[in-house]
Amino acid sequence: MTLIIDYDAGNLRSVQRACAEVGLQASISSDAGALRAAERIIFPGVGAAHSAMKSLRAKGLDAALIEAFNAGTPILGICLGLQISLNFSEERDTPTLGLIEGRVRRFRFTDPALKIPHMGWNAVRKLRPHPVLEALTEDDEFYFVHAYYPQPDDPSDIYAQTEYEGTFPCAVGRDNYFATQFHPEKSGRVGLELLSCFARWDGSVDAQ
Amino acid sequence: MLSKRLIACLDVRDGKLAKSIKFVDTKDIGDPVEKAREYYLDGLDELVFYDITASSDRRKIMLDVVEAVARQVFIPLSVGGGVRSVADATDLRLAGAEKINVNSAAVLRPALIAECADAIGDQNIVLSMDIKAVEASSQCPSGYEIVIDGGRRPMGVDALAWAREGERLGAGELVVNSIDADGTRNGYAIELTRRISEAVRIPIIASGGAGIPDHLFDVLTQGKADAALVASMVHYGDYRVSELKGHLHDKGVKMRMSW
Question: Looking at beta carbons, which residues of chain A come within 8 Å of B2?
Answer without folding.
Answer: 118, 120-122, 144, 164
